[in-house]
Amino acid sequence: MSKPEASSVKRFSLLALGLMFVGGIVFVWAIDFGIKTTNTLEFCTSCHTMQTNFEEYKASLHYKNTSGVQATCADCHVPKALGPKLFTKIVAAKDVYHEVMGTIDTPEKFEARRWHLANMVWKRMEANDSRECRTCHAFDSMDLSEQTRSARSRHSAAEDKGQTCIDCHKGVAHHEPTEPDDAS
Predict the structure, then answer these.
(1) 62 is in an annotated binding site
(2) Residue 67: helix, strand or coil by DSSP?
(3) Is residue 44 a contact partner of residue 74, using CB atoms and an 8 Å limit?
(4) Is 174 annotated as a binding residue?
(5) Is 48 marked as binding a ligand?
(6) Which terminal CB of the chain, N or C, has fewer other CB atoms within 10 Å?
(7) Residue 184 — pLDDT band, cuts 50, 70, 90?
(8) Strands, E, within 29-90: which ranges?
C-alpha cells in the first residue's frame, strides 16, 4: 500500500471512529431524554384513561402532605438503577400500545382490566421487595416511636416476618380495585 492510500485509510478510520463516538453520545442523550420525558407526571397522566388514577393519586399523601414532599408516578413505578429502569420502560411500552390499540383507551375499558393490571404491579413489587417504596420508606429509617401503636406493631411484625410494603399497602396511592367474579 502506498503512502497516500495508507493516509486515506487512516483518515477514513479516524472519521469512522469519530462518527461512532458522536453517534454513541447522541444515542445515550436520546435514551436519557426519552426516560426523563416519560417519567414526568404530565406524561403519565396524558392518557385520558389515567385520569381516574390521577384523581386517586391527588387524594393520597404521596401527592399532598404536611412535609410538602411529593412522590410522582415514576417515584413509585420506575426503579432508580439503570438496568431495572430500562427493563421497566420496555415493559411499560405495552401500556402505550394498549392505549393506542384501544384495549384500555376508555375509563370503562381500563376499569375492566384494572384488577389484572394491579396484580401485575403487585407481583412485581413482591418480587423486588417493594424496591421503589424503599427508596423513601425503609424499616431501619422508620421512627417507630412516632407511629401509632397499631402501625408500630404492624411494621415491627412485618419486618420480623420478612414482609414487603405491598403486602399491606396495596391501596396507598390508588384505590384498590375490586376483584372480579371471574378472577383467578
Answers:
(1) no
(2) coil
(3) yes
(4) yes
(5) no
(6) C
(7) low
(8) none
Question: CA-CA distance, 130 to 124, in Å (whole number)?
Answer: 8
Please tell me whether 76 is known to bind a ligand: yes
> Model-level pTM greater than 0.85?
no
CA distances to 16, 58, 61, 133, 181 from 72, rounded to whole Å, are 42, 10, 11, 12, 32
- The response to whether 133 counts as a known ligand-binding position is yes
Cα–Cα dist 99/118, whole Å: 16
95 is in an annotated binding site: yes
The DSSP secondary-structure symbol of 99 reads: H
Of 109, 30, 34, 110, nearest in space to 78 by CA: 34
User: Would you say 44 is a known binding-site residue?
Assistant: yes
169 labelled ligand-binding: yes
Place of cell 419486618: 159
What is the per-residue pLDDT for 11?
A: 87
d(CA 38, CA 83): 16
Q: Topology of 39-167 in CATH?
A: Multiheme cytochrome fold (1.10.3820)
